[in-house]
Each structure stands twice: as structure tokens, then as C-alpha cells.
Write a structure and sequence with these properties.
With 441 residues, this protein is an alpha/beta fold. The chain is 64% helix and 10% strand. The protein contains 17 helices and eight strands. β3, α4 and β4 form a beta-alpha-beta unit.
């Protein structure tokens, strides 16, 4: 019951934080029978929460670090919403590892009822675009579950979660779900040698998971990939006849860019290093002028003239009343959520969205309850507070999109007023594009 309540309470919060949450091949985990979902883990509790959100009505449980289960209410709540504690030696020492026998029993009982459970196969959470080595405990859990169930339908489904920027408000999430792996295919090898079967299973699982994410080989070039995306991803999506608003298409081109960088590290390292440094300097200069790269790119910016700016300002004037209603009704919980999250985490980005979504859920509902009470106390009937809360809700969703329209319009105005700066930036941008062309030779 607790899980269902929280699921419905967060329905409006998660799409507010993340602009798009999409899953590819969701049917692969909604099949009948027991399923272990092997997933990468860049974003703390958010990975599992969002996956549960897109696979509904199928309920998915997941394993989480045992040290998060503090005695009392927190531990009770986590268990109620379907989280199973699993201990690493660095979390609870050898005593903690002994508790894992109970965790494995819980997992096996869930699978016996044809449940679905997420295992974060890397064993740790790091916000990087790469797959870390898989833990041997994953294979032991899989084969242990098969021994317990004696069920040939047990499958392992690899899943890659891809964020545009996991800790950023209004970023995107794409769950890339792979084909099910039948555990029964490994049982002959397991009977002959469990250790070799464990290694064989992980050897097969790792490339399948890596193929579902954008994997950057060298951490040194994480920024280079992001900057190349900024400079040319949208144009490449269009050039390939794909849709910029389709996250699967976005992922495909992002993966192409990532593979270009990985290859360039081997074949054109000097050029790649030059691009890495100069693209960073270029984008810093763009931001210093309070501009964005799309304003410098002719294909993305469109015509830079006052007529276009004037038209956009007229649209802003028309939309301003609803935008203001959204701000009045939602600004306080939005800012409080942001400030409280930063104060609690003190720079720990891995948990930013998880804590932000939890605090935001509580404050958002408290905010609307408070508005209802205030308006009801001042109005002659119950219809008025309902209408006001509805107005604030619609205005809040509208403002999420309209705010960026206003920001882009102000950026266009600055670009129109500073043609010399735009021309200077275009020269630098074109040079960076020439470096990208060299990387692809």
C-alpha cells in the first residue's frame, strides 16, 4: 500500500524534474516469469525510482546499500516500498556480509512469485558515462536463484540508463533495455564448474550492458564528449533524417559521438587534446557573454533580427499571466527544495536528484494543501480553492517550458545587439568543427 501511495504522489514530481523519461523495449521486463534486471548505476535511488515509473503497472523491486537502512522509520519505509538491503564489506564489514543470506532469501522469494528485481551490477554509484567492472556477486545471485527456483523461465535482462545530465533540472533519461538472457543456458557449465560459469556469465553480460549505454573509455575526455554534443549533435540528428525530440535517436547519435572520441584517442590524440582544451575555452567565452552555442550556430539560431525578437516578446506578453500564476503558486516550494537539497548534500551530486525529488514531492503537496486551506478560508464556497489550485498546477507546468522560451528570447536579443561578438565566436566555432572533421578522418 505504501508503495502505491508514494508512486502516485511522485507521478507529478518526476516529470517535473526530468523533461523526458523514456524506455526502449519495456516489454522485455514486463514478461511473465521471474526477471533479474542488471542495470548500471549513475544516479543513486533515482535510477530505480524512474525505472519503476516507466514499467508501471509491473512492480519492480531493487537492491540497495544496506548502510542506508538506518534503524527506525527510514528502514521501515525503504522495506515497505520494495527495497531489499544488500551489504558490501565496506558498508557493514563481515557482519554485514552475513546479513546478505537474508537478502538472498528475500530475492528468491520475490522471484518465486514471478517478481522483477533490479541488481546494480557495478556495485557502486558513480556519475560517469562508462560501465565499471561487474561484481561477481551478480553471477552468484543469479545462479543461486536458479538453484532455489529450479525454473527454466528465469531470465536476466540487461538495462542501460542514459542521462543527458543526471543531476540537472529538466534533463532527460533514456532507459535502453536489452534482450533477455536465459539463465538455463549456463546451467550445464555451472554444474561442471560454478566458478567458471560465474566468469562466463559476467563475460557475456558485460558487453551486453556496455552496448546499451554511451561508454567513454577515458575519463579525461568526458568533457570533450559533452562539448562535441553541444557543437554538433542536433545537426547530426537532423542530417541523418532522425528526430531531435526522440530520445532513442538522440541516444544513437550520442553513442556515435562517444565512439568517435574513443577512436580518436587512439588515432588522433593530439588533435583530440587540442579540441578538448579549445572547446572548453570557447564555451566558457560564450557563457561569459551570456550567450549559448546555438545562437552562434547558423543552422540552429535561424535569422538574428529585431523582427523575430519583437514577435517572441509579443508571445511572452500573451503568456505572462499564466506564467505568473505558475510562479506565484509554485516558486516557494521550488526554491526551498533547491536550497534544502544543496544544504543536505554539500556537493554530493550522485544523490542530488534523489533527494531533490523526495523533498520536492513533500513540499509540493504541502504547498497545494496550504493554498487550498488559505483560499477556502477566504472564499464563499469550495469551488474557488479547487479552481485556484488547478490554475496554479496548469501554470506550474506551463512555466516549466515558458521559462526557457523567455531565456532563449533574451539570448536572441543579446545576439542581435552584439553582431561583432557573434561573428568572432563563429570563427572560433568553425575552427572547432574543422578539428572534429579531422578526428573523423
Amino acid at each position: 500500500m505504501i508503495w502505491h501511495i508514494i508512486r502516485y504522489l511522485t507521478t507529478f514530481i518526476m516529470p517535473a524534474f526530468y523533461k523526458k523519461i523514456i524506455g526502449n523495449n519495456i516489454g522485455n521486463v514486463q514478461i511473465k516469469g521471474p526477471v533479474i534486471i542488471a542495470m548500471n548505476h549513475p544516479n543513486a535511488f533515482t535510477d530505480a525510482i524512474l525505472f519503476t515509473f516507466i514499467t508501471f503497472p509491473v512492480r519492480v523491486r531493487y537492491l540497495a546499500r544496506g548502510d542506508a537502512f538506518k534503524p527506525g522509520f527510514i528502514s521501515w519505509l525503504l522495506l515497505q516500498i520494495g527495497i531489499v538491503p544488500i551489504f558490501r564489506i565496506q558498508d557493514g564489514g563481515r557482519e554485514g556480509l552475513k546479513k546478505n543470506d537474508e537478502a538472498y532469501k528475500t530475492v528468491n522469494n520475490l522471484l518465486k512469485r514471478n517478481g522483477k528485481i533490479i541488481v546494480f551490477a557495478e556495485g557502486l554509484c558513480v556519475q560517469e558515462r562508462r560501465l565499471r567492472p561487474l561484481k561477481k556477486g551478480v553471477a552468484r545471485m543469479v545462479f543461486g536463484a536458479y538453484d532455489y527456483l529450479n525454473n527454466d523461465t528465469l531470465t536476466v535482462v540487461p538495462v542501460g540508463v542514459n542521462y543527458s545530465q543526471p543531476d540537472k533540472f529538466r534533463s532527460t533519461v533514456f532507459f535502453n533495455i536489452g534482450e533477455p538472457i536465459a539463465v538455463k543456458d549456463y546451467m550445464e557449465a555451472y554444474k561442471n564448474s560454478p566458478a567458471k560459469a560465474n566468469n562466463l556469465f559476467l563475460h557475456d553480460l558485460e558487453p551486453k550492458m556496455k552496448g546499451l549505454i554511451t561508454h567513454i573509455n577515458n575519463k579525461e575526455y568526458d568533457g570533450a564528449v559533452l562539448r562535441m554534443e553541444t557543437l554538433c549533435k542536433r545537426n547530426r540528428i537532423t542530417d541523418q533524417g532522425l528526430n531531435c525530440h526522440n530520445l532513442e535517436h538522440d541516444y544513437l547519435v550520442t553513442k556515435q559521438i562517444t565512439e568517435k572520441i574513443n577512436q580518436a584517442e587512439i588515432t588522433h590524440k593530439e588533435t583530440l587534446d587540442e579540441f578538448n582544451v579549445k572547446s572548453d575555452l570557447y564555451l566558457k567565452e560564450v557563457r561569459n557573454h551570456k550567450l549559448r552555442d546555438w545562437l552562434v550556430d547558423v543552422r540552429q539560431s535561424g535569422p538574428l533580427n529585431m523582427g523575430r525578437v519583437f514577435t517572441r516578446f509579443l508571445i511572452i506578453i500573451i503568456g505572462l499571466p499564466l506564467y505568473c500564476a505558475g510562479l506565484i503558486g509554485n516558486y516557494l516550494p521550488y526554491k526551498l527544495t533547491e536550497k534544502l537539497t544543496k544544504k543536505i548534500l554539500k556537493g554530493n551530486t550522485e544523490f542530488y536528484s534523489s533527494i531533490c525529488i523526495c523533498i520536492g514531492m513533500v513540499l509540493a503537496w504541502c504547498n497545494y494543501i496550504l493554498w487550498f486551506i488559505i483560499v477556502y478560508a477566504l472564499s464563499p464556497n469550495i469551488l474557488m480553492p479547487i479552481l485556484i489550485c488547478l490554475l496554479f498546477g496548469i501554470g506550474g507546468w506551463f512555466s516549466l517550458y515558458f521559462y526557457f522560451y523567455i531565456v532563449k528570447t533574451l539570448g536572441l536579443l543579446r545576439a542581435v545587439k552584439n553582431p561583432a561578438i557573434i561573428n568572432e565566436l563563429k570563427i572560433k566555432r568553425n575552427y572547432l568543427l574543422s578539428l572534429i572533421n579531422k578526428l573523423e578522418e
